[in-house]
Each structure stands twice: as C-alpha cells, then as structure tokens.
From TrEMBL:
Record function comment: Involved in the biosynthesis of branched-chain amino acids (BCAA). Catalyzes an alkyl-migration followed by a ketol-acid reduction of (S)-2-acetolactate (S2AL) to yield (R)-2,3-dihydroxy-isovalerate. In the isomerase reaction, S2AL is rearranged via a Mg-dependent methyl migration to produce 3-hydroxy-3-methyl-2-ketobutyrate (HMKB). In the reductase reaction, this 2-ketoacid undergoes a metal-dependent reduction by NADPH to yield (R)-2,3-dihydroxy-isovalerate.
Matching InterPro entries: 6-PGluconate_DH-like_C_sf, KARI, KARI_C, KARI_N, KARI_prok, NAD(P)-bd_dom_sf
Binding-site residues, Mg(2+) 1: D190, E194
Cofactor: Mg(2+)
Protein name: Ketol-acid reductoisomerase (NADP(+))
Sequence ranges assigned to domain KARI C-terminal knotted in this UniProt record: 182-327
Cofactor annotation comment: Binds 2 magnesium ions per subunit.
Active-site residues, as the UniProt record annotates them: H107
UniProt-annotated binding residues for NADP(+): Y25, G26, S27, Q28, R48, S52, G133
Main EC class the enzyme belongs to: oxidoreductase
Length: 340
C-alpha cells in the first residue's frame, strides 16, 4: 500500500516564520487562507477588488493585490481559476519570485501542460485537496479534514517536501491522509476523475436515468427523488463503508438489481469510452481544447451551461428543494461557484 502520511507525522516548524500568499479567495482560496491562519501560520491574501476582496477583509485577513501579496511572501499558492493562472502569473507573480521562494499549486494543469514555466531558482510543488474547497473549510472547523496529494516538481531549497507537508497539515489534510504524487499523475487523474466519474459521468448518468423515467410517462418529481435526491444518501453510505457497506443497507432486491443491471448500463463499451477520455487527457487534446475555448471567450461552455440550467431535472429539482430547506444547510457560507 502507498505510504499515507498523517497529522502527527509532520513537523510544521519549517513553515513557521514564512509568509504564505494565498492568491485567490474562491472555493479553495478561502479555505486555505482561513485554515492556515487558524493553524498558526502567517497568511496574506492576494486578490483583485471585488466580492472576494470584500469577503477576505470580512474574514479578517491581510488583503492586498496579487502582486503585493506575492512580493511580500515566501510561499505563493496559486488559487485563481486554472484558465486565468497564466495571465495572473505573468502579471503579478513572476517578477516577485525570489531565490528560495516556493510557488505552489492545488492542481498541476498549468505546469504539466506548459502554460506556466517556473524559473529554476524556486521550489515548485503542489498540494491538491481531494475535495471541494468548501469542504476543506467545513471539515477543518469540525476537527476533520479532506485528504490531499502533494507532489514536488522542483526542490531548490532542499526542504520542498517538508514545506509541502507542513502546508498540507496546515489546511487540515493530515487528519484525513496525505499521499505523494507527481504533477503528471495528479493532473491526469484529477481531470479523469472529474470528467468520467465524479462530475461528467455522474451528471450524465443521473440525467439519462431521469429522462428514461419521464419519457416513459412517470412523474418528474418521482424521477427526481429516485435519480438525484437519493443519490446523496447512497453515496454517503459508500463514503462511510465502501460498496459493501452501501449494499448492506439496501434491500437484497436492490442489491440483486445492482449486480445484474448495473453492468448492463455501465459496460465494456462505457469503459472503452473512458479509455478514450483518458487518452485525450494524456495526449493533451483535452487541455488544448479547453485553452482554446477560453481564448474564444467560452462560446460552447456558455451555450451548454445555459441549456443545462433549463433541463427539466433542474427546474423540478429547484421547486422540490425549496420545500426541503434542510438540504441546503450544508451550503451556508458557500459562494455560488463550487467545482472540484
Ligand atoms: P474559484 O473560481 O473558486 O476562485 C477563484 C478566485 O480567484 C476568486 O477569489 C477570484 O476573485 C480570484 N481571481 C480571479 N481572477 C483574479 C485575478 N486576475 N487576480 C486576483 N484574483 C483573481 O477557484 P477554485 O478555488 O475552484 O480553483 C483554484 C485552484 O484550485 C485551481 O487550480 C483548481 O484546479 C484547484 N482546485 C480546486 C478545487 C475546488 O474545490 N474548487 C479542488 C482542488 C483543486 P473574484 O471574486 O475577484 O473573481
Ligand atoms: Mg479534483
Ligand atoms: Mg480538478
């Protein structure tokens, strides 16, 4: 089994006395900045004027422009969206990297796909939480954490690994487990996970199930509860106890249906498609398409997003969730955008 590193295995002294700039105060940024600060580290937040700026001030941080935060810091964590990072890096970070500083990422995309080329005189590593930023924050406040990967791209100081681990501990990841990876592995597995399983695979599965039921004449509300709402309850059981634990809780009828019908829906053909998705990630085709889409101001992204918002599962779901206020309790304190 791979070596999993925990809270008590990690010395954090190496990061004490260093100034950490958290660039961006969105999903990950707000969680890293607050958790690190509450872990006793010296944090400065670098953002532009606006919503995030106001929120960071309200949360009691030392808030500056990305340029000034990077200038003041020893450790610079890039938590602006991946597609904006190359421009923010050029404008505000690059000039402020001094020998021995550390440039840190929460996802390897820009370094792995050569959109950011760090100079050779700084440490470069990633600390990538395996969960949404809002859970990085919420679990920390509950005394728990979200697991994280760390990977060293460049170790100039000779202490990159220790600093990366102290950082991961500071955001609470040591309570859940920290694993070593590389920029390549983190980037490719993260993109694959979100495309094939966690986000893309799941939303397509849920919509296909919902459409199959409603097209057969069943009530959309019933289809919503069946194919979307109940999913969380099932996933919670898988999260706690694996597939076996989930199957223990469901009826034997459901378990038999799981065994005989699951492989009819997700089959060898599906897996062959997953392999194609993985190949497009590995050979850079996905990255290239996403970079071009952004350069063209996201015509397809925006069109698909608008269409998805109006899918019947969304209109029905919005109405039903209004009547279940308890389902949104976990979203207190969260901004509109939450991605993995
Ligand atoms: P968000 O979109 O949630 O947040 C972006 C932040 O960057 C906002 O505070 C935004 O401020 C700020 N920002 C945007 N442009 C600029 C700019 N030009 N100058 C300064 N600040 C700017 O990003 P995420 O937290 O989702 O992603 C950050 C990184 O973390 C990415 O590398 C992502 O892959 C990685 N990651 C994200 C996960 C997640 O849960 N979301 C999970 C694991 C990794 P404003 O309000 O002004 O727009
Ligand atoms: Mg991810
Ligand atoms: Mg991701």
């Amino acid at each position: 089994m791979a070596k999993v590193i925990y809270h008590n295995d990690i010395q954090e002294e190496v990061l004490k006395g260093k100034k950490i700039a958290v660039i961006g105060y969105g999903s990950q940024g707000h969680a890293h900045a607050q958790n690190l600060k509450e872990s006793g580290f010296d944090v400065v937040v670098g953002v532009r004027q606006g919503k995030s700026w106001d929120q960071a001030i309200e949360d009691g941080h030392d808030v500056r422009s990305a340029f000034e935060a990077a200038q003041a810091a020893d450790i610079i964590m890039m938590l602006v969206p991946d597609e904006l990072q190359p421009a923010v890096y050029k404008e505000s970070i690059e000039k402020n990297l001094e020998t021995g500083n550390a440039l840190v990422f929460a996802h390897g995309f820009n370094v792995h796909f050569n959109q950011i080329s760090p100079p050779s005189n700084v440490d470069v590593f990633l600390v990538a939480p395996k969960g949404p930023g809002h859970l990085v924050r919420r679990t920390f406040t509950e005394g728990a954490g979200v697991p994280a990967l760390f990977g060293i791209y460049q170790d100039v100081s000779g202490t990159a690994k220790e600093v990366a681990l102290a950082y991961a501990k500071g955001i609470g990841a040591g309570r859940a487990g920290i694993l070593e990876t590389t920029f390549q592995e983190e980037t490719e597995t993260d993109l694959f996970g979100e495309q094939a399983v966690l986000c893309g695979g799941l939303t397509s599965l849920v919509k296909a199930g919902f459409e199959t039921l409603t097209e057969a004449g069943y009530q959309p509300e019933v289809a919503y509860f069946e194919c979307m709402h109940e999913l969380k309850l099932i996933v919670d059981l898988m999260y706690e106890d694996g597939l076996e634990g989930m199957r223990y809780s469901i009826s034997d009828t459901a378990q038999w249906g799981d065994f005989v019908s699951g492989p009819r829906v997700v089959n060898d053909e599906t897996k062959a498609r997953m392999k194609e998705v993985l190949e497009d990630i590995q050979n850079g085709a996905f990255a290239k398409g996403w970079i071009l889409e952004n350069q063209a101001n996201r015509p397809q992204f925006n069109a698909i997003n608008a269409k998805e918002t109006n899918h019947q599962i969304e209109t029905v779901g919005r109405e039903l969730r209004e009547l279940m206020p308890f389902v949104k309790q976990g979203k207190k304190n969260q901004s509109a955008e939450e991605v993995i």
